[in-house]
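Researcher: Quick test of sequence recovery. Tokens follow.
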């Protein structure tokens, strides 16, 4: 495999470039051997090293080649030029000739050391390797060798490394964060987290492949820019000629047996290790690993539990390159293996059904229906639509229509999904199809803005239809219907009835079923948002853990993780959000990572709540654009409302207004707590920064409504909005909220209670200290700003300046957030005059007043007057604090 040049700057390789450059110039070692798989950016690293050393060395590039591996000194032939090797058997003769050739090639400045850059070192012939090693160890040359393959090739150089005479640097693939930086460099602007995840997974962090993917996705119309955010709207049908040619070249280096192994793994996508050991040739499989075409993964939760093609992109290309006849051959070979078809289909039913349909094989309707269900549960609605449409028998027609309705909902075609699901509750003949039809109809109804009455009607029809089924099936179905009824009660604001009903389901239903599992999740949510989060602390992670493969809720990952994430934001559980984000990165189905914006929006909302508003705005912009395509858990309203308010805080009123309009146009508004909070946010955003009296009265009404319903966390969030607006809220109301909740939400309410109805700057300062210690950045800054206002009213200028300096010190984290108190004037940096800077600088260095006066030809009184004004501006009390004052104020004294 040849190394191809990689355009563009380095991404995350600065440390390696520095290490390699320093090692090359280190006289105690002979050089550096850079190793790593092809395509991870070695060419760019070497080019950067050469650029850094161009004034310190004379470089000579040598290319090894597989065709010259058996030719003595074949790699060094270009260095020798036209000179004839009269005696290749005499190492001394050859050495003299090579040294002469190197000096001739780099004769522009004999005072500089010669740096031999050996590319494709894994193809190096033995004699060239031995000679270059001798020259490097003797200090005749500096050596930079670049090798693609793992192991001990080239042998001679690796022996020098083991003896400590040559340094080895192993370059790894880019991390996810580095890949994100590469995407931003290539595209500019914001790149969605899902787009980064897809490009990272498919390229496995190889810059060349990442760039090729970006280029092809754009040309295929799959990577689009919407409202300043780049996102993958769909995966293209082909992957482009550049990648096809690259994979073809790699396959050509495989033996027939190795190619068969790689194609088999690519065909099923992810093959369990135990299964691979039974049906694949062990020697060929080991060879494919040596070629870096296969890798282990933990797709099913265990260490090295599966084998996949690496990078994933190669697997997609290999599958596309396989002709129909070859696919037939592989399918037959897999199905006729000793393992048997059933075990194989357990891990790749959808893949095998797809192959059969493409090749014109006959597929049983039962198998098509199962594949459609598997595809819908695996967040692949396009495949599910294709499988369900292929069902022809009347026996499975209703069940196939249910799966088709689910797939249409997954594809965000709400109108078509509603038409397809109509009447299926009454027509379904099996429990799975009936439950899926009822849940799908309920989801469509909620997406259309439906309320509790319609949900109760669907639940009633669900129960009525269940009487057609056997009694043992009706029992489970009735529990599902009961969950839907209690969800309707919660939408109506009857939380007492909903909590009571859900608790009954949880207590009566043993062993636990899917219905009781969802009842437990909803019970935890409702208990938490009404102020009893500590009572159900284990519920969240019990449900989340059940989304692992094989768990009770494995097919409902997106619903469980999203609901728990939004709940954690609502109750302001920062640690739970961080833990959930980590879980999501490690366990989420790939389709959810690529095309799901929920977790990005949740992280953005939490950042806003923390006070890192600008970071939250950027994350929300990303998540919102993805959620516009698909929002099954109705997160978009709260995300839009939060974004409208947050963008107003940072002065982007155009974006604030735009998001507010988007929320107004949305047909659904989410559950009641989210609806109250998002409405309060967007009401403020409409007239920010000078919020008018009518809008302010609406926000107050939302807080009162939350209090009347017992939604204490929603009330706390809206009260914090009123606090930032400087609307008077009774101290006792803050205290009551603080007593009813726990965690950081309780701390925020307590802090606001401490300063409500107060004009004491010392109280505001103390409240700020407590807020900042708790990680409540915006609240802490707001209290500092109000303390400054109070000191100004009292005429305590030095104290005011000291507080303002603390506030300005938060600017690097707080950014350009502005409220009525945190104004541009409050955040403006201290401006010292030229004379004040001169005098302050001399004073900071220890000069006496008389010395300063003499140096600047002014009177001592003038010096003292300037210093007094400097102390006042910096908020300090004397000379000893000058340097600290300069730093905190961001002032350069000279």
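Model:
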């Amino acid at each position: 495999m040849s190394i191809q040049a990689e355009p563009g700057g380095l991404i995350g390789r600065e440390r390696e470039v520095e290490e390699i450059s320093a090692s090359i110039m280190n006289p105690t070692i002979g050089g550096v051997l850079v190793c790593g798989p092809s395509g991870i950016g070695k060419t760019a690293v070497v080019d950067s090293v050469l650029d850094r050393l161009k004034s310190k060395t004379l470089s000579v590039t040598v290319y090894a080649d597989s065709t010259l591996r058996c030719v003595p000194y074949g790699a060094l032939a270009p260095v020798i030029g036209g000179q004839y090797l009269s005696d290749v058997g005499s190492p001394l003769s050859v050495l003299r000739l090579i040294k002469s050739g190197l000096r001739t090639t780099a004769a522009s400045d004999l005072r500089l050391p010669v740096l031999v850059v050996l590319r494709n070192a894994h193809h190096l012939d033995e004699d060239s390797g031995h000679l270059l090693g001798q020259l490097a160890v003797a200090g005749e040359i500096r050596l930079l060798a670049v090798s693609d393959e793992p192991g001990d090739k080239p042998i001679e150089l690796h022996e020098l490394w083991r003896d400590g005479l040559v340094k080895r640097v192993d370059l790894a693939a880019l991390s996810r964060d580095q890949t994100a930086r590469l995407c931003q460099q290539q595209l500019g602007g914001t790149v969605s987290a899902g787009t980064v995840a897809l490009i990272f997974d498919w390229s496995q962090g190889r810059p060349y492949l990442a760039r090729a993917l970006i280029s092809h996705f754009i040309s295929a119309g799959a990577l689009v820019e919407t409202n300043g955010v780049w996102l993958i709207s769909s995966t293209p049908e082909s992957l482009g000629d550049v990648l096809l040619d690259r994979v073809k070249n790699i396959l050509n280096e495989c033996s027939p047996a190795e190619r068969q192994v790689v194609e088999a793994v690519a065909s099923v996508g992810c093959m369990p290790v135990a299964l691979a050991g039974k049906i694949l040739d062990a020697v060929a499989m080991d060879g494919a690993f040596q070629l870096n075409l296969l890798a282990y993964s933990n797709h099913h939760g265990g260490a090295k539990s599966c084998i996949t093609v690496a990078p994933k992109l190669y697997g997609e290309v290999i599958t596309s390159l396989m002709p129909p006849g070859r696919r037939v051959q592989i399918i037959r070979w897999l199905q006729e293996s000793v393992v048997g078809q059933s075990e194989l289909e357990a891990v790749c039913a959808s893949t095998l059904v797809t192959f059969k349909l493409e090749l014109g094989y006959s597929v049983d309707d039962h198998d098509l229906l199962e594949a459609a269900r598997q595809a819908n549960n695996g967040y692949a609605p396009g495949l599910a639509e294709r499988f369900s449409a292929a069902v022809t028998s009347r026996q499975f027609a209703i069940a196939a229509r249910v799966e088709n309705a689910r797939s249409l909902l997954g594809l965000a075609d709400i109108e078509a999904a509603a038409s397809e699901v109509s009447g299926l509750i009454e027509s379904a003949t099996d429990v799975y199809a009936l439950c899926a039809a009822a849940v799908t109809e309920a989801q469509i109804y909620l997406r259309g803005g439906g309320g509790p009455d319609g949900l109760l009607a669907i639940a009633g029809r669900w129960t009525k239809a269940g009487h057609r089924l056997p009694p043992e099936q009706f029992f489970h179905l009735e529990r599902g219907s009961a969950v839907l009824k209690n969800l309707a009660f919660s939408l109506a604001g009857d939380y007492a009835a909903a909590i009571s009903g859900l608790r009954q389901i949880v207590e009566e239903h043993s062993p636990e079923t899917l219905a009781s599992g969802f009842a437990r999740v909803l019970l935890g949510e409702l208990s938490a948002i009404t102020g009893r989060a500590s009572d159900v602390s284990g519920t969240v992670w019990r449900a989340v853990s059940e989304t692992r493969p094989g768990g009770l809720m494995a097919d409902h990952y997106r619903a469980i993780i999203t609901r728990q994430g939004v709940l954690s934001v609502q109750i302001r559980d920062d640690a739970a959000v961080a833990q959930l984000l980590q879980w999501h990165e490690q366990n989420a189905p790939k389709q959810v990572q690529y095309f799901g914006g929920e977790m990005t929006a949740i992280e953005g909302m939490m950042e806003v709540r923390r006070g890192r508003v600008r970071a939250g705005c950027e994350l929300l912009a990303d998540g919102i654009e993805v959620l516009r395509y698909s929002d099954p858990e109705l997160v978009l309203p709260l995300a839009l409302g939060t974004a409208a308010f947050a963008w107003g805080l940072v002065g982007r009123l155009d974006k604030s207004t735009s998001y507010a309009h988007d929320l107004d146009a949305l047909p659904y508004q989410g559950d009641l707590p989210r609806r109250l909070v998002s409405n309060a946010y967007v009401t403020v955003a409409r007239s920010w920064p000078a919020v008018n009296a009518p809008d302010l009265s609406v926000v107050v009404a939302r807080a009162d409504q939350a209090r009347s319903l017992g939604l204490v966390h929603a009330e706390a969030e809206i009260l914090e909005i009123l606090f930032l607006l400087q609307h008077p809220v009774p101290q006792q109301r803050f205290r009551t909220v603080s007593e009813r909740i726990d965690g950081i939400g309780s701390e925020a309410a307590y802090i606001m209670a401490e300063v409500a109805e107060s004009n004491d700057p010392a109280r505001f300062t103390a409240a700020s200290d407590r807020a900042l210690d708790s990680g409540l950045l915006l609240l802490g800054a707001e209290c500092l700003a109000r303390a400054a206002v109070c000191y100004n009213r009292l005429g305590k200028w030095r104290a005011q300046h000291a507080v303002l300096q603390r506030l300005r010190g938060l600017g690097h984290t707080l950014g350009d957030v502005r409220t009525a108190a945190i104004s541009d004037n409050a955040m403006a940096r201290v401006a010292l005059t030229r004379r004040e800077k001169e005098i302050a600088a001399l004073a900071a260095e220890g000069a006496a007043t008389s010395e300063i006066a003499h140096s600047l030809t002014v009177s001592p009184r003038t010096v003292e007057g300037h210093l007094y004004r400097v102390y006042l501006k910096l908020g300090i009390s004397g000379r000893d604090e000058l340097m600290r004052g300069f730093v905190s104020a961001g002032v350069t004294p000279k």
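The first strand starts at residue 31 and ends at 35.
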